[in-house]
Write a structure and sequence with these properties.
3-stranded mixed sheet; Alpha-Beta Plaits; about 240 residues
């Protein structure tokens, strides 16, 4: 059983990708690479005739990244400026350097507007040329994060841990009421959307459409920190929901 649980944990970690800083060192917030990459790839503003393929995010200079203000989630990267690395294919009806500049600008704008990421570098590579009539074809990009597969949240009032309402369950109820929280999730740490250790709370959540991820995380941190027994709060955004 322990081996199966360990294997499942490894598969989950590989699926969500890196755990990236959201905002700066004082924000106490993180986002999974899977959630961030999906939101960036789907963001408005990408030039017509361009299809973004593999997209990865990492800390641009981890050796000089500052320490976070609160304890980070397990395996999280430090809160330094990020590097976006992406491939794209395009219809060759415009100069490729011009298209690359437009894609870079679209990714930078989306990272700030929709998520709240601090991005220092965007590296792009042209991976192929498209026929004009096939530019909008939907295919799974090679090397990209897999589709989101986030476990559903526990129903209100039940964090599935057996904890009393004075513990994680009460903090979960507070987090659910914050505007922009679509649901609580449990990607890290088994089935617990709220982990409380020595007064430090880690809240995992999905954001609702139309809400900036960093703004939601900040509001949750403020609401939960005002309620005992939490003395410090970190938030991990594991999914960014979009209108369908």
């Amino acid at each position: 059983m322990a081996v199966n649980q360990w294997a499942q944990a490894v598969r989950t970690q590989l699926g969500i990708g890196r755990v990236l800083p959201l905002g700066g060192p004082a924000d106490g917030s993180w986002i999974t690479e899977q959630a961030a990459a999906g939101a960036l790839r789907a963001a408005a503003g990408t030039p017509a005739g361009v299809r973004i393929g593999a997209l990865r995010l990492s800390v641009a200079d981890p050796d000089h990244a500052p320490e976070p203000a609160v304890p980070a989630p397990p395996s999280a990267l430090p809160p330094g400026p990020l590097r976006i690395t992406a491939d794209f294919a395009a219809v060759a009806d415009r100069p490729l350097p011009v298209l690359a500049d437009q894609v870079r600008a679209a990714l930078l704008e989306a990272s700030i507007r929709d998520l709240g990421l601090v991005v220092g570098v965007v590296d792009l590579r042209v991976s192929g040329l498209l026929e004009a009539d096939g530019a909008t074809a939907e295919t799974a990009p090679s090397g990209s994060a897999p589709p989101e597969d986030v476990p559903p949240a526990a129903p209100p009032g039940d964090d599935r841990t057996g904890a009393s309402q004075e513990g994680p369950a009460s903090l979960a109820a507070i987090a659910r009421r914050v505007a922009g929280v679509a649901r609580l999730t449990s990607v890290l740490g088994g089935s617990r959307p709220v982990r409380l250790t020595d007064g430090h709370a880690l809240i995992q959540l999905a954001t609702a459409p139309g809400h900036r991820a960093l703004d939601v995380a900040s509001a949750v941190r403020q609401a939960v920190a005002a309620a005992p027994p939490a003395t410090s709060v970190a938030v991990l955004v594991t999914a960014v929901e979009r209108n369908r």
